[in-house]
Design goal:
Length: 292
């Protein structure tokens, strides 16, 4: 059987990944273990492939998994991604059906079936979950940071949105699609790699990862009104309704923003990109190990 490489981010999930590595490393004779930071992920991917590895396990959270997935796609090599979910939220692992128990997850890396899933990209940057622009993604990131520091969800939500309500900044955007141009003012835009359900103040799950569709969602209203409504829904743990959102499904689109230079979130990372933002879905591009 070809060797399996594990690419680990010791900073994922607080101390979770580092603790797992310390406990498991002595008995991991069937795996080649690489730590992020010693070399770039692209270099690790090439080295692992040259060593005979054909399955690459990303050990960490969603950001780590996304970085490894992107490196695999860029490499063009015959490799499949497996997931060892050791982060805080592990959204991708849950959508893929990977168990959160490390032993069970590694068993899928060894003997799970291979399936092809979509990835998406914005201005060349690959993401596996979602990308976002504006107040909503910034608020989610800030709220989750409070939760990671030990705050309860509702107080973390309240303090985050009280801060966000002070300085809401709607984005002027134009979406170019095959059927024409759509112009909007909105406090946030979410672009998902396939369709999401939305629940309260959190992204829900995706039923499919191979539908070949970008899921684009935004609210039409003033920024202050939109943010207040999101806060109300979050506190009551109610889902956003389709009528409250504009939702578009596309294979690709170009988003022009004002300002032209804008912070864009992608799988928990943030890049400072220049408009127009070129989004596209890459259907069934990534091979992954999944439960049978």
């Amino acid at each position: 059987m070809p060797k399996i490489a594990i690419i680990a981010n010791e900073r994922s999930g607080g101390t979770v990944c580092a603790a797992w590595l310390k406990k498991a490393e002595g008995g991991m004779t069937d795996y080649s273990i690489y730590r992020i930071g010693e070399h770039s992920i692209d270099e690790i991917i090439r080295e692992a492939h040259q060593a005979g590895c054909r399955t690459i396990v990303a050990a960490g959270g969603d950001g780590t998994i996304s970085s490894v997935a992107g490196a695999i796609v860029r490499s063009g090599l015959d490799l499949r991604l497996a997931v060892l979910p050791l982060g805080t939220f592990n959204h991708f692992a849950k959508d893929l059906g990977i168990p959160l128990d490390p032993t069970a997850a590694l068993e899928i890396a060894k003997s799970g079936e291979t399936r092809m899933i979509d990835v998406a990209r914005v201005n060349g940057v690959i993401f596996i979950n979602n990308s976002s622009i504006g107040a909503y993604p910034l608020a989610i990131r800030e709220r989750d940071a409070y939760v990671e520091r030990g705050w309860r969800k509702i107080p973390a939500t309240v303090i985050t949105f009280l801060r966000m309500l002070r300085t809401p900044s709607p984005i002027a955007l134009a979406i170019e699609k095959e059927s024409g141009r759509v112009e909007k003012h909105t406090p946030f835009v979410l672009i998902g790699n396939n369709r999401y359900s939305l629940s309260g103040f959190s992204l829900g799950a995706r039923a499919r990862l191979d539908e070949g569709t970008l899921f684009i969602a935004f609210v039409q209203a003033s920024a202050r009104l939109s943010i207040a409504r999101l806060l109300y829904k979050a506190l009551l743990d109610r889902a956003l309704e389709e009528k409250e959102l504009d939702v578009i499904g596309l294979r690709s689109c170009s988003i022009e923003t004002k300002p032209r230079r804008i912070h864009v979130s992608h799988d928990g990372e943030v890049s400072y990109l220049t408009s127009p933002l070129q989004y596209e879905i890459m259907p069934r591009t990534l091979a992954v190990a999944s439960p049978k």
